[in-house]
Specification:
Layout (H helix, E strand, L loop, with lengths): L22 E3 L5 E4 L6 E11 L2 E8 L2 E8 L9 E6 L5 E3 L5 E2 L3
Amino acid sequence: VQIGNPTIPLAGIIAEEFCRDVTVGIRPEHVRLNLDKTSGWRGRVVSAHPYGDVTHVKVEIEGIHLCALASTETMVQVGDSVIVRIAPTHLIIFDDQGVRLDQL
């Protein structure tokens, strides 16, 4: 899966016929935000709303908005630069018809 320059290899093999534009789903609790300079996608926080022990965060990466849940210790604010990391096992891939593609 590629967004800009960094890529995430899929956790499994998807048939070659599906190697094209796909829709990727991810639950916000599986998105990790780092403020340090680790590898991942560079993004900017466009909204941050505290909610109990987590903060609902929306990050923009190259025109794509991604929702994440961050622990309150992370303390992100609107305008902050963050590094976004997603484990490949948490990606949900759909074809152009909206059918979920099972990873082998």
